[in-house]
Design a protein that fits this description.
Bound molecules: S-adenosylmethionine
Number of helices: 10
Number of strands: 11
Order of helices and strands: HHHHHEEHEHEHEEEEHEHEE
Number of domains: 2
Mean pLDDT: 97
Radius of gyration: 21 Å
Structural class: alpha/beta
CATH architecture of the largest domain: 3-Layer(aba) Sandwich
Low-confidence stretches: none
Largest sheet: 7 strands, mixed
Oligomer: single chain
């Protein structure tokens, strides 16, 4: 079959999982052939030689398997990152967290940052790319994530700025000399029923406890305990109120919440007095 006909045939299998079935089949074809879109449009009438491999990917996609896990790639902050099953796929709303952090870090000379829950490495890698002189320790409990983040740091040529370390929150971080802690921790309630689009991602990256904000609270207390000035976190759209209540009882200087692209409350900047 020609590429054009393959796209027509296989997109029928994806009608129920995406509103852009033909586009997704094209993306999978390009992934298999390691070609770009221009090539595809110039070679639409060529015979397609990897139908067996394509079929396997399309059938997985038809069961709501994320495109990013099939193509092993995702975009974040206008850049490309490697992704892998077993590690959270980057979300566009996390770009706000990076933006807020960069604003502060650019005012500090050679800042030192601790990232908790590095996942694929998108936050630490972008900070290392955008903030001159930065040094980061990036931790996670997931070994696959730490390996992937390291690979992304190498791909973006910032591996010298980031030390990756296995640690459950602060337990393996003896250092106290950070200017900032940054985290997009798991913050969903344990028994929340996830949509099909998220169920292939690791629960350890999504669920934050019985209420959902337990890890966020531990990170707030840990940052305060280490006498670190800034804490920036992503959070759930419904966590502004409980976190405001929680933080009210902890001595701090400033607390600002921010919203995401859809105007949901999505995170906060907490500043302690030094
Ligand atoms: C929501 S994901 C965020 C990943 C990445 N930073 C991002 O923004 O895409 C949360 C990450 O926290 C990690 N994590 C969960 N519990 C942790 C803990 N107790 N200590 C350190 N990392 C943890 C998970 O393995 C996961 O990689």
């Amino acid at each position: 079959m020609t590429i054009k006909n393959i796209v027509r045939e296989y997109s029928k299998l994806l009608k129920n999982v995406t509103h852009i079935p033909a586009k997704e089949v094209e993306i999978l074809i390009l992934h298999l052939l390691q070609k770009n879109v221009i090539w595809l449009h110039l070679n639409n009438d060529e015979e397609f030689t990897k139908e067996k491999e394509l079929k396997e990917l399309v059938l997985k996609r038809a069961k709501d398997f994320p495109m990013e896990y099939l193509t092993l790639k995702a975009s974040f902050y206008g850049e490309q990152f490697h992704v892998k099953e077993g590690v959270l796929i980057p979300r566009p709303e996390t770009e706000f967290l990076v933006e807020k952090a960069v604003e502060i870090l650019k005012t500090i000379e050679n800042p030192k940052v601790l990232e908790i829950g590095v996942g694929s490495g998108i936050i630490s890698v972008m900070l290392a790319r955008l903030v001159p002189g930065i040094k980061i320790i990036a931790v996670d409990i997931n070994k696959i994530a730490l390996e992937l983040a390291q690979k992304n740091a190498q791909y973006h040529e910032v591996e010298d700025a980031i030390e990756f370390r296995e640690s459950d929150l602060f337990t393996n971080v003896a250092e106290n000399d950070f200017d900032m802690v940054i985290s997009n921790p798991p913050y969903i309630q344990n028994d929340f029923k996830l949509g099909v689009n998220v169920m292939h991602e690791p629960g350890s990256a999504l669920f934050g406890g019985v209420i959902g904000d337990e890890l966020l609270k531990d990170i707030i207390l840990g940052t305060k305990g280490k006498d670190i000035k800034y804490l920036l976190c992503e959070m759930g759209y419904d966590q502004l109120k409980p976190l405001t209540e929680f933080i009210k009882d902890i001595k701090h200087h400033k607390l600002n919440f921010y919203k995401d692209y859809e105007n949901f409350d999505r995170g906060f900047t907490l500043e302690f007095k030094k």
